[in-house]
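Please complete every field before forwarding. Incomplete forms are returned to the sender.

SECTION A: IDENTIFIERS
Entry label: holo-303
Bound molecule: fe (ii) ion
Molecule representation: SMILES string

SECTION B: INPUTS
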Amino acid sequence: MKLRSIELALPDPAGAAAFMVDVWGLTAADQRGDTHYLRGTGTFPYLVAFEKTDGEFVRSTTFVCSEDELAGLKARIAAKGWPARSVVSTDPGEGHGLLVELPEGTILRFLAGTSEVAPIEGFAKSSKRVSPVKLTHVVFNAADAEAMGHAVEDVLDFRVSDRTKGMVFVRCNDSHHSTAFARAGFASLNHIAFEMDDLDAVMRGIGWMRDNGFAPAWGPGRHGPGDNVYAYYIAPFGPVIEYSTAVEKVPADYQAGAPDDWTWPEQRIDQWGISDKDFAGLRTAEERFRCHRDWDADETIEN
Ligand SMILES: [Fe+2]
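SECTION C: PREDICTED COMPLEX
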């Protein structure tokens, strides 16, 4: 199981795509109707889709999986009775699978039979430009993050990796987290994190953003759980986006830490302590994009 992409709907997909290509470093992959698809240098056909709508919302966050994993998901989701719909993807990479709405409204899509593309080479360090490789995590705000962690363990066969005062980190493979639920008191998109090649690429990304007039809302820094380096920005079209690198790999029997295992010394909220955090700006941005289901659930999910 791998996190692949996020599908966002918003009024100005062309403007959002222009920022994400010209400044953030993604590459235009395809355009189908009013929907723009952007990719990284890795092998996924796209990482972000921007669809034109009047409002702004998260249509889905997409994971790719095997046929066996999809069959297991369908059986457990049907048994649990979560709203779900069988789908055939018309996005790049195609595939077939399932759209499912989690208890607080988070919408995930699981696709099997998807195709990949050749990686992009040639983002040389001599260039000021950087490019993300892929998504590394998509984090959601939750009214009850603890319940969401249990729900995705039970029904999706994900695993909680760590619990902190602020977050429940969840993995779907050996990466410490591919998603997480923030203890926010409301449900929405918290942030979208893009994997960079290495620490140097994160730092050069901060430089390229600075060249373009953007300062981090938080970072650079290094998190506790996952041990990844981060720099968070508020995208001009709304959501919080992150350059990140090297989320820790964990074994299948990794023992989930509790909030008391993840405390900081005074005046620290990361390992380095070198940057301020724009709490208010990030909070406002985190409230903008919420999941929105505009489809009817199937009465029964076809296997
Ligand atoms: Fe993150």
